[in-house]
Each structure stands twice: as C-alpha cells, then as structure tokens.
Amino acid sequence: VYQLYEAKNILTSEEKFNLLELHIKAGEKAINSIAYASANQYLNRALEDLPANAWEKHYDLCKYLYENLIESEFLNGNIEISQKYAHLMIENLKTDLEKTKILNVLVMQSSLQGKFQEGIDLGIKTLEILGYPVPVNELEAGIGGAFGAVAQHLAGRDILEVFKQDDVKDEQAKLAIALRATLAPAAFLSGQNTLWAYF
After folding, report:
1. What count of Cα atoms within 13 Å lies in the side-chain half-sphere of residue 186?
2. pTM above the 0.85 mark?
3. CA torsion sign, 150 to 153 to 156 to 158?
4. Chain segment 115-125, per-residue pLDDT in tens
5. Do residues 29 and 7 lie in contact, with contact meaning Cβ atoms separated by under 8 Å?
C-alpha cells in the first residue's frame, strides 16, 4: 500500500479509487491488530483521497470508512475528532436505524469517559427514535409495567425457557437491547438507581 501511495500522482482514477479501498482495509486490519497509530494513518489517507460527493456516489464505502475512522480516532485518544466524524456520519446516513447505531457508539464513548449523564440523555433520545421511549417522569410505573409485560410474555412458562428461544431478529429491538445494556451501568454509576432498575 505504501508504494502505491507514494506513486499515487501517476495512478489512474480507477487505481486511485482502488488504493483508497486498500487504505480502508489496511486501517481496519490495523485496528484489529491493535496498531492504532497505523490505523489512523491509513484511514486518514483514505479520507484525503475521498472523491467529491462521495456520500452520494459511494455510500457504502463512506460508511465503511467513517465507522473505522470513528473507532480509530477514539482508540488513539482523539475523542473530539472521533465525535466530529460520528456527527458528520449521522448527517449523511439515510435511515434512522443507521443513525441510531452511530448514536449508540456516542453513548458508549460518553460512558467510557465517565460522562454518564451525557450518555444517558443521548441514550434516552436514541431509544425514543428506535420506538422505545423511556418514561423519565414515571419510571416506577414504567418498571411495574415492564414486569407485567414480562409476566404476560412468559405466560406461566419457566423463565429459563427464554434462553431456549431464537435470537431477536428485529434490528431495532436488538439495538435497543444493546443500548439498554450500555445505559444500565451508566445509570448505576451515576447514582440513578430507579433509572438503572428500569434499564
């Protein structure tokens, strides 16, 4: 990849585009190998070579690049840059589901930095977008309702039966479950026990 990058001024447009893809793949591989500085180098080279109107012309490639950039910058301690890329990505994504996946990443980043309330607020907004609003002003009633829904769902079966069921297939439900799993420790560590119990 390095040799091609050094010779990029003499490459054709198609070859430059192939080089861009190689940089993204090399960046992803570097992340997986815990070589975060190298990952940043590869991914930022890809970003430099991204053609104009890339989000319209190469939507999936842009998603692939920005997902890796967000992770790489965060792992390199460049949190503001990571969040900048996340917000830029959210602006360009087409569906609410895609956007909520990136919002979930921002929630996790906030929690990892100890910014629990920021993460909780964003997580609650994200759950609402997913169709799972949190009754923040009526949490105790919400907890009671949730226990009632579980009892109704079990319909007299042993709770261990739940583990024998198929995995959740609905993408929004899966993301909501993952988000609640992120929010529960944040609520607990910030002393919001009722909210923690709700999650």
Report:
1. 24
2. no
3. negative
4. 999 999 999 99
5. no
